[in-house]
Amino acid sequence: KVLKLLDDPRWSITIVASAILLRIFAALVWQYQCAESGVTLKFGDSQSYWTIAHNLVVNGEYQYGSEQSRIFRAPVYPLFLSLFAWCEHSTNGGVAQTTFVLAARLAGCVLGGGIVWLLMFWTRQIAGPRASCLSGILAATYSGAVGMSIFVLSEAVATPLFVLSCWMLWNSTCRCRQHHNPTNTERAGLYWSAGSGVAFGLASLARPR
Predict the structure, then answer these.
(1) C-alpha pair distances (Å), 67 with each of 51, 74, 96
(2) d(Cα 158, Cα 42) in Å, to the nearest integer?
(3) Mind listing the pLDDT tens digit for each residue in 140-168?
(4) CB under 8 Å to 63, separation ≥6 — which residues?
């Protein structure tokens, strides 16, 4: 009876929704703490990512500060932030930067919720609904995962891509073990492997180490 109850998709929806709401609450608290400190972005790394994204939108140049500045940042996360930097630039200063930084944090919250859903789906494939719910609760409430979602850091994008890559790679091995139609199985395995490689490549370009 318990297993049938856990098999209800509403449990998965509830856990994922709770994960997103928890992250949104944490993002709001963190943004408030930043405001209390008189800054919009508390970490130097966050500031560098936002500056690069802003320069990319305004000047079309991928750089931090002046031409004499030297800093290494992988491109995927600044490109992601450029969507929010473009919105900020399009307002011509009419809206405070905090609004767009918070929007980037909220996008990270949604991506964090996506990780929880994918982990639950993956666990269900391996071990069933009870393990799926447990993995979802752990992923939803793990403090490190919450932090990776709300800080303006590359982990917000890299982590979902890494998890997606691992899941697709696992799917490719499962497809290769099926023997009912070798040709289609091999083709499907190659597609899943290629998708895993693309996701892993993007993750590496978001967070190389």
Answers:
(1) 13, 18, 27
(2) 20
(3) 999 999 999 999 999 999 999 999 999 99
(4) 52, 55, 69
